Amino acid sequence: MAFIQTKRAGMGELLTGTFAHLALIWREIAVYFGVFLVIGLISDALFASPDLAPLTAIIGLAAIPAYFAGQYWLYRAAFKRLGAQYDPRFKAFSMFFMAVILVFPISVGMNLLIVPGLILAAKWVMAPSFLVAQERSLFGAMGDAWHASSGNSWQLTGAFTVLCVIWLVAFSLLLTLIGIGDTGGPARINAFEWLTFHILPVLLLGLSVAAYRLLAEDDTSLVEVFE
User: Fold this and answer.
1) Hey, which residues does 4 pair with through a beta bridge?
2) From CA 83, how far away is CA 154, in angstroms rounded?
């Protein structure tokens, strides 16, 4: 069985949709960043105490499942706010294993002049949305995302790249502002530095949902061809 993608989405549509969908869940995003800011501040406070510093390793490990649970919650919130279909099952663990599987080919691609990695990441950017929105296994979601991106790979890659550039600029500006305006010592800087890394996955969440809505939400967007 193969799939033919019949829908097309321009890079402008994808970027506009990204920020429009993020705006719908701004409260959830604020909570998400607030939680991780608190985690970062606690970690830095513990690190400042020689007796309690070893506990930062435990917090670091706990932050990993918290990250994927938070990402899953944001994805589901996005579909819920849109009144769209979503799978009620808890899939944060599947999202974690999806990331583990995809990080290798994307990393290899990034090492090959960067562009192949960007293309691969863009072609799989809808995979979390398929996982959350539909009753799909992680491999099924990855396959559906790959097929749904057909004919739109360059548009998705362009949008993906623009968001990465936005993140790099925001990352640099935020670190500069934090460094200039900070009077609370290194703990506050470390916490905010850590927080800035969460900006990119949130931006890509918006792209994932926008691309899914434009290219894959309706069953008719993917036409099955039996071979």
Assistant:
1) 223
2) 29
pTM above 0.90, yes or no: no
**CB contact set of 151 (below 8 Å; sequence gap of 6+):** 5, 8
Instruction: Give me 187's structure tokens.
Output: 């703990």
> In 93-124, which positions are buried (b, 16+ CB within 10 angstroms) versus exposed (e)?
ebbbebbeebeeebeebeeeeeeebbbbbbbb
| pLDDT tens digits along 168-177 | 998 888 777 7
Task: Please return the burial class of 177, using the count of CB atoms within 10 Å of its CB with bins 0-12, 13-18 and 19+.
Answer: exposed
Tell which residue, 17, 39, 10, 2, has the closest CA to residue 203. 17
DSSP, res 114: S
